[in-house]
UniProtKB/TrEMBL annotation:
InterPro entries on file: Reg_factor_effector_dom_sf (IPR011256), SOUL_heme-bd (IPR006917)
Classification of source organism: Eukaryota, Viridiplantae, Streptophyta, Embryophyta, Tracheophyta
SUPFAM superfamilies given in the database record: Probable bacterial effector-binding domain
Name by which UniProt lists this protein: SOUL heme-binding protein
Family: Belongs to the HEBP family.
Protein source organism: Triticum turgidum subsp. durum
One Pfam family named in its UniProt record: SOUL
Residues passing through the membrane, by range: none
Amino acid sequence: MLSLISGRLFQYLMGANLNSSRIRMTTPILTSIVPGAGPLHSSAYFVGLYLPVEFQASPPVPLPELNLHPDRWPGHCVAVRSFSGYARDHNVVEEAEKLAVSLSRTPWGNSTNHPSKNAYSIAQYNSPFRIVGRVNEVWFDVECRSAGVETY
Protein backbone atom coordinates (compact mmCIF):
# COMPACT_ATOMS: atom_id res chain seq x y z
CA MET A 1 0.00 0.00 0.00
CA LEU A 2 1.00 3.56 -0.32
CA SER A 3 2.35 5.02 2.86
CA LEU A 4 2.83 8.42 1.25
CA ILE A 5 0.41 10.31 -0.93
CA SER A 6 0.81 10.01 -4.70
CA GLY A 7 3.28 12.59 -6.10
CA ARG A 8 0.80 13.96 -8.65
CA LEU A 9 -1.92 14.32 -6.04
CA PHE A 10 0.52 16.08 -3.71
CA GLN A 11 1.47 18.52 -6.51
CA TYR A 12 -2.22 19.29 -7.03
CA LEU A 13 -2.64 20.05 -3.31
CA MET A 14 0.42 22.32 -3.36
CA GLY A 15 -1.07 24.49 -6.13
CA ALA A 16 -0.58 22.62 -9.42
CA ASN A 17 -4.07 23.56 -10.52
CA LEU A 18 -5.46 26.19 -12.89
CA ASN A 19 -6.03 28.82 -10.19
CA SER A 20 -2.90 27.93 -8.13
CA SER A 21 -4.96 27.16 -5.03
CA ARG A 22 -3.20 25.43 -2.17
CA ILE A 23 -5.54 22.80 -0.76
CA ARG A 24 -5.42 21.63 2.84
CA MET A 25 -4.78 17.91 3.21
CA THR A 26 -7.75 15.92 4.50
CA THR A 27 -8.15 12.41 5.83
CA PRO A 28 -8.63 9.68 5.11
CA ILE A 29 -6.30 9.05 2.21
CA LEU A 30 -8.15 6.37 0.32
CA THR A 31 -6.38 3.72 -1.76
CA SER A 32 -8.85 1.67 -3.80
CA ILE A 33 -7.77 -1.64 -5.29
CA VAL A 34 -9.12 -2.31 -8.79
CA PRO A 35 -8.84 -6.04 -9.52
CA GLY A 36 -7.61 -7.16 -12.93
CA ALA A 37 -7.05 -3.62 -14.23
CA GLY A 38 -3.28 -3.85 -14.53
CA PRO A 39 -1.06 -5.67 -17.00
CA LEU A 40 -1.54 -9.44 -17.18
CA HIS A 41 -4.77 -9.06 -15.18
CA SER A 42 -2.94 -7.92 -12.04
CA SER A 43 -4.55 -5.44 -9.70
CA ALA A 44 -4.14 -1.70 -10.03
CA TYR A 45 -5.08 1.04 -7.59
CA PHE A 46 -6.03 4.67 -7.38
CA VAL A 47 -5.41 7.12 -4.56
CA GLY A 48 -7.85 9.79 -3.52
CA LEU A 49 -8.79 12.15 -0.75
CA TYR A 50 -11.76 14.23 0.15
CA LEU A 51 -11.60 17.90 -0.73
CA PRO A 52 -12.11 20.39 2.10
CA VAL A 53 -15.64 21.85 2.24
CA GLU A 54 -14.58 25.17 0.65
CA PHE A 55 -13.56 23.35 -2.57
CA GLN A 56 -16.32 20.75 -2.85
CA ALA A 57 -18.79 22.83 -4.87
CA SER A 58 -16.15 23.96 -7.36
CA PRO A 59 -12.90 21.96 -7.15
CA PRO A 60 -9.78 23.57 -8.62
CA VAL A 61 -9.01 22.02 -12.01
CA PRO A 62 -5.69 20.12 -11.93
CA LEU A 63 -3.01 21.01 -14.45
CA PRO A 64 -3.47 18.74 -17.50
CA GLU A 65 -0.02 17.15 -17.20
CA LEU A 66 -0.96 15.73 -13.79
CA ASN A 67 -3.60 13.51 -15.42
CA LEU A 68 -5.84 13.63 -12.32
CA HIS A 69 -9.57 13.10 -12.53
CA PRO A 70 -12.29 13.97 -10.02
CA ASP A 71 -14.33 11.10 -8.67
CA ARG A 72 -17.71 11.91 -7.18
CA TRP A 73 -19.05 9.12 -5.04
CA PRO A 74 -22.79 8.72 -4.81
CA GLY A 75 -24.18 7.78 -1.42
CA HIS A 76 -23.40 4.15 -0.74
CA CYS A 77 -22.74 1.74 2.09
CA VAL A 78 -19.44 0.24 3.13
CA ALA A 79 -18.52 -2.47 5.59
CA VAL A 80 -15.49 -1.38 7.63
CA ARG A 81 -12.78 -3.13 9.63
CA SER A 82 -10.32 -0.97 11.60
CA PHE A 83 -6.71 -1.91 12.21
CA SER A 84 -3.63 -0.21 13.64
CA GLY A 85 -0.05 0.20 12.50
CA TYR A 86 1.08 1.01 8.99
CA ALA A 87 -0.98 -0.22 6.03
CA ARG A 88 1.36 -2.63 4.22
CA ASP A 89 0.62 -5.11 1.43
CA HIS A 90 0.71 -8.16 3.73
CA ASN A 91 -1.48 -6.81 6.53
CA VAL A 92 -3.95 -5.06 4.22
CA VAL A 93 -4.74 -8.33 2.43
CA GLU A 94 -4.99 -10.09 5.80
CA GLU A 95 -7.43 -7.46 7.14
CA ALA A 96 -9.52 -7.60 3.94
CA GLU A 97 -9.76 -11.39 4.32
CA LYS A 98 -10.85 -11.01 7.96
CA LEU A 99 -13.55 -8.53 6.93
CA ALA A 100 -14.76 -10.91 4.20
CA VAL A 101 -15.01 -13.76 6.74
CA SER A 102 -16.90 -11.53 9.19
CA LEU A 103 -19.32 -10.45 6.46
CA SER A 104 -19.94 -14.03 5.37
CA ARG A 105 -21.74 -14.58 8.71
CA THR A 106 -24.09 -11.60 8.27
CA PRO A 107 -26.96 -10.52 6.00
CA TRP A 108 -24.32 -8.64 3.98
CA GLY A 109 -22.44 -11.83 3.18
CA ASN A 110 -23.70 -11.95 -0.40
CA SER A 111 -23.90 -8.20 -0.91
CA THR A 112 -20.18 -7.62 -1.48
CA ASN A 113 -20.87 -8.38 -5.13
CA HIS A 114 -22.50 -4.95 -5.18
CA PRO A 115 -21.57 -3.27 -8.49
CA SER A 116 -18.30 -1.51 -7.77
CA LYS A 117 -15.14 -0.94 -9.70
CA ASN A 118 -13.11 -1.68 -6.56
CA ALA A 119 -12.36 -4.94 -4.79
CA TYR A 120 -11.78 -2.99 -1.58
CA SER A 121 -10.38 0.29 -0.30
CA ILE A 122 -7.89 1.17 2.42
CA ALA A 123 -8.50 4.35 4.42
CA GLN A 124 -5.43 5.78 6.17
CA TYR A 125 -6.08 8.50 8.74
CA ASN A 126 -2.61 9.42 10.02
CA SER A 127 0.49 11.15 8.74
CA PRO A 128 3.24 8.69 7.78
CA PHE A 129 5.34 10.37 10.49
CA ARG A 130 2.99 9.23 13.27
CA ILE A 131 4.38 5.99 14.64
CA VAL A 132 1.99 4.98 17.45
CA GLY A 133 -1.78 5.16 17.67
CA ARG A 134 -2.28 4.82 13.92
CA VAL A 135 -5.80 4.20 12.57
CA ASN A 136 -6.56 2.49 9.25
CA GLU A 137 -9.63 0.83 7.81
CA VAL A 138 -10.38 -1.65 5.08
CA TRP A 139 -13.67 -0.90 3.25
CA PHE A 140 -15.88 -3.17 1.14
CA ASP A 141 -18.77 -1.68 -0.80
CA VAL A 142 -21.96 -3.49 0.19
CA GLU A 143 -25.52 -3.37 -1.03
CA CYS A 144 -27.52 -1.36 1.51
CA ARG A 145 -30.97 -2.59 0.58
CA SER A 146 -30.11 -6.28 0.84
CA ALA A 147 -30.05 -6.09 4.64
CA GLY A 148 -32.77 -3.52 5.21
CA VAL A 149 -30.33 -0.66 5.80
CA GLU A 150 -31.29 2.80 4.60
CA THR A 151 -28.94 5.53 3.44
CA TYR A 152 -29.46 9.26 3.28
